[in-house]
Amino acid sequence: MTANKTILRALAGETLETPPIWMMRQAGRYLPEYRATRAEAGDFLSLCYNSELAAEVTLQPIRRYGFDAAILFADILLVPQALGADLWFVTGEGPRLSTITTEAELAKLKPADAIHDHLAPVYETVKILSRELPDETTLIGFAGAPWTVATYMIAGQGTPDQGPAHALKDENRALFDALMDRITEATISYMSKQIEAGAEVVKIFDSWAGSLQGDDFADYSLKPMQRITSALKEKHPDVPVIAFPRGAAEKFKGAHEAIGADCIAINDGVDAAWVAEHVQATGCVQGNLKSSHMVTGGDLLVSETRRIVQALSGGPHIFNLGHGITPDADPENVQLMIDTVREG
After folding, report:
1. What is the 3 state secondary structure string of the chain?
2. What is the pTM of this model?
């Protein structure tokens, strides 16, 4: 089976003539078929918890583009909700959560192993996908990294600089560490259940890793991801792990070893030639085309795609964006990117 799945071959360290492709947020608002299915579901959370519809939107970009991998349609904030936080979405503004800023609020959260009844629809989505995806398409499960999830749980929403989380970390380190531990243990359990349901690869998204400075980057981005990776490898030794410490800049160097991941995803803030020398030398890399090219398209999209493919052609590479595709992207530009990668 692995021989047909180029993503798994790249994650095993193979350098392929044509890199496999998938795209962060490939199931999403830039596709008219996604918007139609979301309207059918009623709202975003209803879509996440409707296994049949969540599977449908996961499959849509595979049918349209033939990506080499499908990533489970869900949201990183389902884990805090499963732990007992209130979660809702404000139209045009994004997620809102009840906050965890005191010991009393932390004490109200459920134990890490008590999340599975709430998340059962997600596992059912994975089971549906494992049956319905083409044989050559790899199924990726995912979760948010503890630091990124904690920033939302502490602030109650996304923030420009993750200031509330930094403040709690600096002012009440014991409470902050206890929250991080709870999220970490829940994430291990959640991702393990995804694998048991059929996920062939898992990815840890630390979207706000770049705001951690000094020792905090190692303590609160790298080490929690290493803890998750190690626990998953112990239970599921054959399942590859992709880690994404977004915004790590020069600290991408050494991330394979620090986390123990099979692949490091790279955002667009570092040059692909630097990545080849300093990161790809120790394992598979994923990335790092700017998402804005999916909006603007044209010759620059083609030339930048070719530049990245060429720069990373000397080692294992999965072609992807440096972050998720945006709602204003043109679906035709996605096809142009894929054609450019596959036609050379």
Report:
1. CHHHCHHHHHHCCCCCCCCCECCCCCCCCCCHHHHHHHHHHCCHHHHHHCHHHHHHHHHHHHHHHCCCEEECCCCCCHHHHHHCCCEEEECCCEEEECCCCCHHHHHCCCCHHHCHHHHHHHHHHHHHHHHHCCCCCEEEEEEECHHHHHHHHHHCCCCCCCHHHHHHHHHCHHHHHHHHHHHHHHHHHHHHHHHHHCCCEEEEEECCHHHCCCHHHHHHHHHHHHHHHHHHHHHCCCCCEEEEECCCHHHHCCHHHHHCCCEEECCCCCCHHHHHHHCHHHCEEECCECCCHHHHCHHHHHHHHHHHHHHCCCCCEEECECCCCCCCCCHHHHHHHHHHHHHC
2. 0.98
